[in-house]
From TrEMBL, chain A:
<feature type="domain" description="Aldehyde oxidase/xanthine dehydrogenase a/b hammerhead">
    <location>
        <begin position="25"/>
        <end position="137"/>
    </location>
</feature>
<keyword id="KW-0560">Oxidoreductase</keyword>
<dbReference type="InterPro" id="IPR016208">
    <property type="entry name" value="Ald_Oxase/xanthine_DH-like"/>
</dbReference>
<dbReference type="InterPro" id="IPR046867">
    <property type="entry name" value="AldOxase/xan_DH_MoCoBD2"/>
</dbReference>
<dbReference type="InterPro" id="IPR000674">
    <property type="entry name" value="Ald_Oxase/Xan_DH_a/b"/>
</dbReference>
<dbReference type="GO" id="GO:0005506">
    <property type="term" value="F:iron ion binding"/>
</dbReference>
<dbReference type="GO" id="GO:0016491">
    <property type="term" value="F:oxidoreductase activity"/>
</dbReference>
Automatic annotation (TrEMBL), chain B:
<dbReference type="InterPro" id="IPR002888">
    <property type="entry name" value="2Fe-2S-bd"/>
</dbReference>
<keyword id="KW-0732">Signal</keyword>
<keyword id="KW-0001">2Fe-2S</keyword>
<dbReference type="InterPro" id="IPR036010">
    <property type="entry name" value="2Fe-2S_ferredoxin-like_sf"/>
</dbReference>
<keyword id="KW-0411">Iron-sulfur</keyword>
<feature type="signal peptide">
    <location>
        <begin position="1"/>
        <end position="20"/>
    </location>
</feature>
<feature type="domain" description="2Fe-2S ferredoxin-type">
    <location>
        <begin position="47"/>
        <end position="123"/>
    </location>
</feature>
TrEMBL record, chain C:
<dbReference type="InterPro" id="IPR036318">
    <property type="entry name" value="FAD-bd_PCMH-like_sf"/>
</dbReference>
<dbReference type="InterPro" id="IPR051312">
    <property type="entry name" value="Diverse_Substr_Oxidored"/>
</dbReference>
<dbReference type="InterPro" id="IPR036683">
    <property type="entry name" value="CO_DH_flav_C_dom_sf"/>
</dbReference>
<dbReference type="InterPro" id="IPR016167">
    <property type="entry name" value="FAD-bd_PCMH_sub1"/>
</dbReference>
<dbReference type="InterPro" id="IPR016166">
    <property type="entry name" value="FAD-bd_PCMH"/>
</dbReference>
<dbReference type="GO" id="GO:0071949">
    <property type="term" value="F:FAD binding"/>
</dbReference>
<keyword id="KW-0285">Flavoprotein</keyword>
C-alpha cells in the first residue's frame, strides 16, 4: 500500500504519521477515489413512506434520461443467491434485504437504483423514480412507544434491587438522549468490479475488510479468496463501518447487472438513513448512598430504539456494573422497534449513554451529601477488582486519572455550591465525570517482508480509520526489531493481507500489536535460521537472543556475531524474507479483567440570558496502558472529547412523527461541533503498561475519550446555574427553560 | 434479461409537445397523466470548458451540471478535494479560486473558466511541501485525513486573510471546515505555527 | 440536477432582455446550486450575471452603495463599511462560513430562500415549495420556525444575517426592470410576509434584477451589536439574532434600531421597542423594558416558545453590548 507508494516524493516532510504526506497532499485514495476502466455510476432512490409495501415502481421517466444504463428494483435485479428466499434472507443476518423485498420498513429505504454513465445522469434519473404503495401505520415516536415495552434483566442481579430505597441519600430520575448520527466526513462508498463471473474486487469504506469479504462470499456463494476488498484510507468510521450496509450490496448488484465497474457514493442525507446511528434512549436511574457517601444500591433501567426488521441492543446499562463498588445492583434493558433503519454501535456504544445517566446521578448525590464529586468518586471506585466478574483488574488507574485531572483544572478553585460564580450574565461552573470501557483484544495476523537492504514491510488486513494504527504498527515493529522507522513500511486495509478483525471497540491496536510482535519474532527466528548456516551460534536461537539493526543480525548484543543482511540473502540465495504470525488473547483473560478509563473535567460559562454554553476549559486524563504514540493518542482523546461536546450540547436528529421522516438530515440540520465549539483540549495519560493484555502494554483509547464526557459538561452546567438537565443535547432553549 | 435501449430520436420527437401540455395541467391532474405520458426530459448540455488548475491548462467536455468538485474528482482524477456533503455544509471541498477559499461543491465548473484555481494537489512546490502541509504533519492536525485537504486550503487562506490574532479568531475562521475526528487541537496549532513565521 | 443550458450576458440590459420564463440568474450560486441539487429549483437555463453586475462599493456623504455582485466577505472587510457601517460587517461575519462568504453575492444574500427543513425535503409538504401542499412545520418540527408575522400557510424564517443589519440600517434595494428603469425599494418592503402566497419571498418585480443595495449615512457606527444565538458556536443558522444600534447623547438614547433574524419570514424590525427607547436613559431597566415590548408582539408555535425568552435575553444583551462597542 500505498500509504507510501501513492504519496508524492517530498524532501521536507517532518516526522509524523506514516501516511502523513499522503493525507496532507490529498494523494491518499479513499474508497470512491479509485478509477476503474469503463466505470459507471449508481444512485439510489428511496421510499417516500415509512411503512407498507410497494405496489408499483415507475421507472419510465428515469429510463428516458440519456446515459441511463439500467435501473434495479425488487422486480428487476440480479438475484443474490444468499437472498434467494425468505429463509435465506433471515439466515444471512444482513439486515435490510435491499431490492429483495417489497416491504417498506422506514422512510428513505432504497427502492430503486439507477445506473448511468455519469454521476449527473444517475442523480437526475434517480430523482424521477416514483412508486405507489400500500401504506400501513408507521411508528417512529420513541417517546410514545417505549413505555409499553417491558424491560428485561441485563446481567445478574447483585444483592437487592430495592436497596437504594433504604438509603438516607437518594437520587431517582429519568434521562433521555436524542438519536445521534456518526457522520464520518467521508460518505460511505463502494466501487464494485466483477473481474470475472465469480471474482469480485471492492473498493469500500468500512472498518474491517475481512468482514466485508466474508459477508459477500456468503451472499454470493463464492470463495472468500475470490473477493478482494480495499479500504486503505478510511475517512472516519466511529462504528458506522463495522457493519456491511445495503448500499454496498447494491453496488455489487449493479456491477453484475451492467457488467461494468460501478461506483456508488451515498449522499449525506442517505448517510443518516443507511449507515446506522446511536439509538434514542430513555433511562431511569435510582441510586442510594449512606451518610458516609458509600453507594449502597443502584437500579438502572434503559430502553432504546431499534428497527422493525432487526433488533440491535446497545448495552446501555453495562457501565453500571463496572465502575463503582455497589453491593446491590440491578440493571434492565429493552429495545423499542420503530419504523426507522437499524441503529448500530457508535463511538463508546452503550457505555456512552449509560455513563451520562449514572455520572449525572453521582453528581446529584454529591450535592445532597455535600461531598466533593471528586472525593465521592474516589471513595466508591472499584479500583482493585471488577465488580462484575470478581477478577482483579489487570491494571486500573482511574483513581490516578481523577487526581491528575483535578490538579490540571485547578479543581480546588471550584466553589462547593452551585450558582455561586458569576461574571456579568455568565455563570461559571466546574464539572467532572468518569468513563470506563472493557479493554478487549482479538485474534489477528500480521506479516513481514524483508528486502535485501534490511527494509521491511509490515502487513495486515486491519484498517486505519484515522486512529494511527499504521503509525502504531511502525512504532511497535521498530521497538521489536530495532530497524529504523524510515526502513519500515506499512501495508494495511486489504483483505488479501494477513487477516485481522474489524477495527472497533478500542481493540485495534491492542489486537494488532500482539500480531506485529509475533511476526517480528518470527522474522528474528527465520533470519536466525539462515544465520545458523554461517555461524553455529545461531543454532536453536530464540527470538529473544536475536538483535536486529538496519543492516544485519547480531547475537544477544548489537555487533556480536554480526552478519549483514546482504550476506544472509546472498548465501541463502534469497530475494526477500517473508514471515507471518498470529496472536490473540490467552489464559490471562481467565485471570484478570481488563479496562481502559478516563476522567473528564471541564469549566463552562453559561450565558443566563441567551442560553449559550461556552466550554472554557476541558481536561481529560486517560489510562490506556502504554502510550505507543503520544501525539496520535492525545489526538484520539481530544477528538473523542470534541464528540462528547457535540453529544452534550448539540447532536440531535429530529424526526417528524406524522411522516416518519428525519428532519434536517444533513450537516446543516444535524449539528456536530465545529472548531469554535471546542476549547484547546488538555489531554494527559497515566502511561503505565498493562503487561498482561498484549506485548505492547497498550489498552486502547478510542472509546474512553467520549464516555462520561457529556456528563462532565452537564454537571458543570448544573454547578454554574443550579439547573439539573437530564435530556441531551443541552441546547440553548433547554438552558433557558430548564 | 431484456436489454433496453432508448433512442434519442424518440424523446426529441415527443418532448416539446409533452412540455407544453404538462405546463398547462394542474398538479393533481398532472400526477394522473404522469403514469400515462412520458415526462419531458431535457437533453443535457455538454460544452467544452477551459480551466486553469494548479497553473495547468485543461480543456474538457463537461455537463453544465458538473460542479468544480465533481469535475476535479470524477473527470480529472484530482481527488484531493473531498466530497463530505455536496451541499456547502462541511468545507471538505475547499479550493482557492482567484486566490480566495471557496467551496467547489457549490461552484459550477462552467462558471470558473479561465480563473486561477488551486487545489490541494497544487499547494506543494515540486518536492517541497507547503509550510501548512508540514505543520499539519508536525502538529498531527488530522486523524482520518478526509477533511484535511479542505482544512489545509482553508488554513492557508485564513493566514493570508490575517485571521490569526488569537486562538478564538482562528477557531471562528476555521469553523467552515468540519472535522468529525475532532482534530481541532492540531489544526489550530498548525495555523499558529505557520502564522508565527 | 435537471439538465440546463448556460448563458452569460455581458451587461444588465442583456441580462434583463435575455431571460425567459423558467430561467434563472446565477451569481454566487451558494443557495441556487444547492436548491438545484435538491430538485427544489429546476431552471431550464442559467444566466451567469457575475460580470454583468457591479462588484463595486461606492461611498458618498449621503451613504454607501454596494453593487449587487460584491461578495459578502468583501463587504465585511471593506474599510468604509468597517468604519461607518460596522453593524453590517459584524452581521455578515456571523453568517455562514468564510468560504461561503467569499462566494455569496449581495443580491443573492437578499434572495436566498428559507432553510426550513420542510422546504428542503421534497417528500414533505411545504406551501413555499409546492403551493397547496400544506405547511409541514406548522404542527411539526417547528423549533426553528417563526414567532411573529407568520400565517397558517407558512412559518418559515428568512435565513440571512446580513439582511437583519440592512433592515436595521434602513437600507434600500436598487432594482432594474425589463424596461431598463431603475427603482429603489425600501428594505422594509422588499421581503414579504407569507400570507396566503408563501411561495413568493419578496417584492422584486418579475423580470427585474437587483443591481445594488444602498445604506443611508447614519451615526450608528459607535454603539452597535450583532448577537446571534444558535445551536453551535459558528456555521449554523440563527435560533434568534439581534441587530442593535444606538445613538447616544451622554447616557441618553437619541435614536435606536432593533432588528431580528430567525423570528420571521423577513428580517424583523422591532419598531415599538425602538420608539420606547428613544429619549430614554441607556439603562438595563430600559433595555429590559424594550425587550419585553418586542416579546409582547410574538406568538410562538408548539415547539418554539423558548424563542420568546431567548429573544428578550438577546435584545437585552445586544443593547448592553452596544454600550461597550
Amino acid at each position: 500500500m500505498r500509504f507510501f507508494e501513492n504519496q508524492p516524493a517530498v524532501t521536507n516532510a517532518p516526522e509524523g504519521r506514516v501516511e502523513g504526506v499522503a493525507k496532507v497532499t490529498g494523494s491518499g485514495k479513499y474508497a470512491a477515489e479509485y478509477h476503474a476502466g469503463n466505470m459507471c455510476y449508481a444512485v439510489m432512490a428511496g421510499s417516500t413512506i415509512a411503512s407498507g409495501t410497494i405496489k408499483s415502481i415507475h421507472t419510465t421517466d428515469a429510463r428516458q434520461v440519456a446515459g441511463v444504463l439500467d435501473i434495479i428494483t425488487h422486480t428487476r435485479k440480479p438475484l443474490v443467491p444468499g437472498m434467494a428466499d425468505a429463509a435465506k434472507i433471515k439466515e444471512s443476518r444482513f439486515g435490510l434485504p435491499v431490492f429483495h423485498t417489497d416491504n417498506i420498513y422506514f422512510k428513505g429505504q432504497p427502492i430503486a437504483l439507477v445506473i448511468a454513465e455519469t454521476l449527473e445522469d444517475a442523480t437526475y434519473a434517480a430523482s424521477l423514480i416514483s412508486a405507489e404503495y400500500t401504506t400501513t401505520e408507521a411508528k417512529v415516536d420513541f417517546d410514545k412507544a417505549h413505555a409499553a415495552v417491558p424491560l428485561n434483566a441485563a446481567g445478574k442481579e447483585r444483592g437487592s434491587a430495592d436497596a437504594w430505597r433504604d438509603a438516607p441519600y437518594q437520587s431517582e430520575a429519568e434521562y433521555t438522549i436524542e438519536h445521534e448520527v456518526h457522520n464520518p466526513m467521508e460518505m460511505h462508498a463502494t466501487i464494485a468490479h466483477w473481474e470475472g463471473p465469480d471474482k469480485l474486487k471492492l473498493y469500500d469504506k468500512n472498518q474491517g475488510v475481512n468482514n466485508v469479504q466474508r459477508t459477500f462470499a456468503r451472499l454470493w456463494n463464492i470463495p472468500a479468496d475470490n473477493i478482494e476488498v480495499f479500504s486503505e484510507f478510511v475517512g472516519g468510521g466511529f462504528g458506522s463501518g463495522l457493519r456491511v450496509w445495503p448500499h454496498c450490496l447494491a453496488a455489487i448488484m449493479a456491477a453484475k447487472q451492467v457488467n461494468r465497474p460501478v461506483k456508488l457514493v451515498l449522499t449525506r442525507p442517505q448517510m443518516f438513513l443507511l449507515t446506522g446511528y446511536r439509538p434514542k434512549s430513555w433511562q431511569k436511574v435510582r441510586m442510594g448512598a449512606d451518610a458516609g457517601g458509600r453507594f449502597t444500591g443502584l437500579l438502572h433501567q434503559a430502553r432504546h430504539s431499534t428497527s422493525v426488521y432487526e433488533s440491535f441492543n446497545d448495552g446501555i446499562t453495562r457501565i453500571s456494573r463496572m465502575v463503582y463498588n455497589i453491593s446491590n445492583v440491578k440493571t434492565e434493558q429493552a429495545t423499542v422497534p420503530l419504523n426507522m433503519s437499524t441503529p448500530t454501535w457508535m463511538r463508546g456504544p452503550g457505555d456512552c449513554s449509560g455513563a451520562f445517566a449514572v455520572e449525572c446521578t453521582v453528581d446529584e448525590l454529591s450535592y445532597q451529601l455535600k461531598q466533593d464529586p471528586v472525593a465521592l468518586r474516589l471513595k466508591n471506585l472499584a479500583i482493585t477488582h471488577d465488580p462484575e466478574s470478581g477478577k482483579p483488574w489487570s491494571t486500573h488507574y482511574l483513581n490516578e486519572c481523577i487526581e491528575k485531572g483535578a490538579a490540571l483544572i485547578n479543581w480546588q478553585q471550584r466553589k462547593p455550591l452551585p450558582g455561586q460564580d458569576k461574571e456579568g450574565d455568565w455563570a461559571i461552573g466546574y464539572g467532572m465525570a468518569t468513563g470506563m470501557w472493557n479493554a478487549g483484544r482479538g485474534n489477528a495476523s500480521a506479516g513481514i517482508t524483508m528486502q535485501r537492504d534490511g527494509a521491511i514491510t509490515v502487513k495486515t488486513a486491519m484498517t486505519d480509520i484515522g486512529t494511527g494504527t499504521g503509525t502504531g504498527i511502525q512504532n511497535i515493529a521498530h521497538e521489536q526489531t530495532g530497524i529504523a522507522k524510515n526502513k519500515i513500511k506499512i501495508e494495511l486495509g486489504n483483505s488479501h493481507l494477513p487477516p485481522a478483525p474489524s477495527q472497533g471497540g478500542s481493540t485495534g491496536l491492542s489486537t494488532i500489536s500482539g500480531a506485529v510482535a509475533a511476526t517480528c519474532n518470527a522474522l528474528k527466528q527465520k533470519l536466525a535460521g539462515y544465520a545458523a548456516a554461517q555461524d553455529d551460534t545461531y543454532k536453536n536461537a530464540q527470538a529473544a537472543d536475536i538483535v536486529l539493526s538496519d543492516t544485519g543480525i547480531s547475537w544477544q548484543t548489537a555487533g556480536n556475531h554480526f552478519i549483514a543482511y546482504t550476506s544472509l540473502f546472498e548465501k541463502n540465495n534469497l530475494t526477500t524474507v517473508e514471515v507471518e504470525a498470529s496472536s490473540g488473547p490467552g489464559a490471562e483473560r481467565q485471570q484478570y479483567a481488563f479496562c481502559s478509563s478516563a476522567a473528564h473535567f471541564c469549566r463552562v460559562k453559561v450565558h443566563t440570558k441567551t442560553g449559550k454554553v461556552k466550554i472554557d476549559k476541558m481536561v481529560t486524563v486517560a489510562d490506556g496502558g502504554s502510550i505507543v504514540n503520544e501525539k496520535a493518542a492525545a489526538n484520539q482523546i481530544s477528538g473523542a472529547v470534541v464528540g462528547g461536546i457535540g453529544m452534550a450540547l448539540m447532536e440531535e436528529q429530529a424526526t417528524d412523527q406524522r411522516y416518519g421522516s428525519l428532519i434536517g438530515n444533513d450537516l446543516a440540520g444535524y449539528h456536530f461541533a465545529v472548531n469554535a465549539d471546542a476549547p484547546v483540549i488538555e489531554v494527559a495519560f497515566i502511561n503505565k503498561p498493562d503487561k498482561n493484555i498484549n506485548p505492547s502494554g497498550a489498552k486502547g483509547l478510542g472509546e474512553v475519550g467520549i464516555i462520561g464526557c457529556a456528563a462532565a459538561i452537564v454537571n458543570a452546567i448544573y454547578h454554574a446555574t443550579g439547573k439539573r438537565l437530564r435530556s441531551l443535547p443541552v441546547t440553548p432553549d433547554k438552558i433557558l427553560l430548564g | 434479461m431484456e436489454k433496453q435501449t432508448y433512442s434519442r430520436r424518440f424523446f426529441l420527437s415527443t418532448s416539446s409537445m409533452a412540455a407544453a401540455a404538462v405546463a398547462l395541467i394542474p398538479g393533481n391532474v398532472k400526477a394522473f397523466y404522469k403514469n400515462v405520458k412520458k415526462r419531458f426530459i431535457p437533453a443535457k448540455s455538454v460544452n467544452t470548458l477551459s480551466l486553469t488548475i494548479n497553473q495547468k491548462q485543461y480543456t474538457v467536455q463537461a455537463d453544465t451540471r458538473t460542479t468544480l468538485l465533481d469535475l476535479l474528482r470524477e473527470q480529472l482524477q484530482l481527488t484531493g478535494s473531498k466530497k463530505g456533503c455536496d451541499h456547502g455544509q462541511c468545507g471538505a471541498c475547499t479550493v482557492h479560486v482567484n486566490g480566495e477559499r471557496v467551496l467547489s461543491c457549490l461552484t459550477l465548473a462552467a462558471l470558473v473558466q479561465n480563473q486561477p484555481i488551486t487545489t490541494i494537489e497544487g499547494l506543494a512546490e515540486g518536492d517541497q511541501l507547503h509550510p501548512m502541509q508540514q505543520a499539519f504533519i508536525e502538529c498531527d492536525g488530522f486523524q482520518c485525513g478526509y477533511c484535511t485537504p479542505g482544512q489545509i486550503m482553508s488554513a492557508v487562506a485564513c493566514v493570508k486573510e490575517g485571521h490569526t490574532h488569537s486562538v478564538e479568531e482562528i477557531k471562528e475562521f476555521m469553523s467552515g471546515n468540519l472535522c468529525r475526528c475532532g482534530a481541532y487541537n492540531g489544526i489550530v496549532e498548525s495555523i499558529q505555527k505557520v502564522a508565527a513565521r | 440536477m435537471k439538465p440546463f443550458t448556460l448563458r452569460k450576458p455581458n451587461d444588465i440590459k442583456q441580462a434583463l432582455s435575455g431571460k425567459k420564463a423558467g430561467e434563472a440568474y446565477i451569481a454566487g450560486g451558494t443557495n441556487l446550486v444547492d436548491l438545484m441539487k435538491k430538485h427544489i429549483a429546476e431552471p431550464d437555463a442559467l444566466l451567469d450575471v457575475t460580470t454583468a453586475l457591479s462588484a463595486g462599493i461606492e461611498t458618498s456623504s449621503r451613504g454607501i452603495r454596494i453593487g449587487a455582485m460584491v461578495r459578502n466577505s468583501h463587504i465585511a472587510s471593506h474599510a468604509a463599511i468597517q468604519s461607518q457601517y460596522p453593524l453590517l460587517a459584524k452581521a455578515i461575519l456571523a453568517g455562514a462560513s468564510p468560504q461561503i462568504r467569499n462566494m455569496a453575492s449581495t443580491a443573492g444574500n437578499l434572495l436566498q430562500r428559507t432553510r426550513c427543513p420542510y422546504f428542503y425535503d421534497i417528500t414533505l409538504p411545504c406551501n413555499k415549495r409546492k403551493p397547496g401542499s400544506g405547511c409541514g412545520a406548522l404542527e411539526g418540527e417547528n423549533r426553528m420556525s417563526a414567532i411573529v408575522g407568520y400565517s397558517e400557510h407558512c412559518v418559515a424564517v428568512h435565513p440571512s444575517d446580513m439582511c437583519v443589519a440592512l433592515a436595521a440600517l434602513d437600507a434600500s434595494v436598487v432594482v432594474s426592470g425589463s424596461g431598463g428603469k431603475s427603482e429603489s425599494i425600501p428594505f422594509a418592503s422588499f421581503h414579504r410576509l407569507p400570507g396566503t402566497t408563501p411561495e413568493i419571498d419578496n417584492n422584486l418585480p418579475v423580470n427585474a434584477l437587483i443591481t445594488a443595495v444602498e445604506i443611508p449615512a447614519n451615526a450608528f457606527h459607535k454603539h452597535y451589536a450583532y448577537l446571534k444565538v444558535r445551536d453551535r458556536t459558528s456555521y449554523a443558522f440563527a435560533l434568534v439574532s439581534v441587530a442593535a444600534a444606538l445613538q447616544l447623547s451622554g447616557t441618553k438614547i437619541t435614536a435606536a434600531r432593533l432588528a431580528s433574524g430567525g423570528v420571521a419570514h423577513k428580517p424583523w424590525r422591532w419598531h415599538e421597542a425602538e420608539k420606547f427607547l428613544q429619549g430614554k436613559e441607556a439603562t438595563a431597566a430600559n433595555f429590559s423594558q424594550a425587550a419585553a415590548i418586542a416579546a409582547r408582539s410574538t406568538k410562538p408555535l408548539s415547539h418554539n416558545g423558548y424563542k420568546v425568552t431567548m429573544l428578550q435575553g438577546a435584545i437585552e444583551t445586544a443593547l448592553h453590548n452596544c454600550l461597550n462597542a
